[in-house]
Amino acid sequence: MSVEIIFRLFGMAGLAIAGAYAGIELGQLNESLTTTYVITFALIGALIGLILTPYVTTRPMRTLRSLLGRIAAETLFAALMGLFCGLIVAALLAFPLSTLPNIIGDIAPFVGVLVFGYLGVSIFVMRQGDIMGMISSITNRGDNTDSGNGNGNSWSKINRTILLDTSVIIDGRISDIASTGFLPGTLLIPRFVLNELQYVADSPDGLRRQRGRRGMEVLSNLQKDSNVMVRISDIDVDGVREVDSKLVVLARQLKCPVLTNDYNLNRIAELQGVTVLNINELANAVKSVVLPGEFLHINIIQEGKERDQGVGYMEDGTMVVVENGHDEIGEYSDVSVTKVLQTAAGRMIFARISEQVDNKEE
After folding, report:
1. Which helix (H) or strand (E) holds 108?
2. Which of 123, 279, 331, 362 is 20 to 30 A from 97 in CA distance terms?
3. Is 259:253 a contact under the CB 8 Å cutoff?
4. CA of 89: how far to CAs of 76, 220, 296, in Å?
5. DSSP 3-state assignment of 338?
6. Which of 279, 282, 241, 234 has the alpha carbon at shortest distance from 261?
7. Is residue 259 located within the same domain as residue 327?
C-alpha cells in the first residue's frame, strides 16, 4: 500500500468525522433530520478527504523533493548555511525589535526572521564559491603543511561539476584523461545515464552488450581512482524522457558543462547555450602538428580512393593520403607533406613520396 493511499484513508476518515459533527450541529436546528444531516455531511467529508488529501500532504512534499533534487549539493549546503546564519542574526535582534512601541514590537521580530533568513540564503548562495573555498583552505591547511600538496582536495575540484554522457563512458578514454588531472572537478553521473548504460550492457546484441560492459568497467575504474571525484546522483528532470534532452536541461539548471563525444548531443547542447566538452575535439587538438613541406616516415598500408593513391596513418591515428604511393603499399616510406585539411571527422594530411629519396635512388 502506497503512502498516498494511506494519507487518503486518514483524510477520508478525519473529514468524515468532522462532517458528522457538522451534521450533528445542524441537526440540532431540525431534530427530525439529524440522522440525515450526519450521514450526508459525513459522506461529503469522506469524499472531500479522499480527493483533496494528497494535494495538501504527499503532492507538495513530492514537488519539494523534486525541486531539491534538481539543486546542486554545493548550492543546497550553502543555502542551509546562509539560513542558519540569518536565523542567528534574527534571534540576536529579536529582543531589541520587540521593545519597539505598539504593534510594531509584536510584528518586527517575525519580519526580522523572514528578512534575515532570506538575506542569509541569498548571500551565501551568491558567494558560495568564495565561502566554500575559504572553508576548504582552512580545513586543508594541515594537510598542505604535512604533504606539501593540497591539490587533491582543493575547492576548485569540488566546486566544478561535469555531467557525463553514456557515450563518453562507453568510449573509455575518459578514464585516462581524468587520471591525468585535466578534468578538475566532480564527474557527475545521473542515475538515468547509469540506467541507460545498464540497458546497453544487457542488450541481446553482442557488440552493444560488450560496449556496455566496457562502460561499466570504465566507470568502476573511475570510482577506484583516488585522483578522480565521481558522484552518482538520483537527480532527474521531470517531463523529459530522452536521456540527451535530460542532460541538456540538467546542464542548464546546474550551469555546468556536458562531457560527450556524441555529435548530435554536441550540436543540440550548443544551440541551447550549454558548454560541451567533446573528447573527439580534444583528441584532434592534441594531434601532432605538421606543416606543408615537412617529412614523415609512415607505413603505407592500403589503396586510396583515387588512382595511384596510398593511405597510411601516423602514430596518433591521423590519416595520410599519399598521392603517388600506390607502388609503395606495404612498405615504410618517407613522404613530403603537401596539404593539411581539418574536417569534421578529424585532421587529414596529403603527401607525396619524398623527392629526396627518389633522387638518392637514381
Report:
1. helix 104-126
2. 123
3. no
4. 20, 46, 71
5. strand
6. 279
7. no
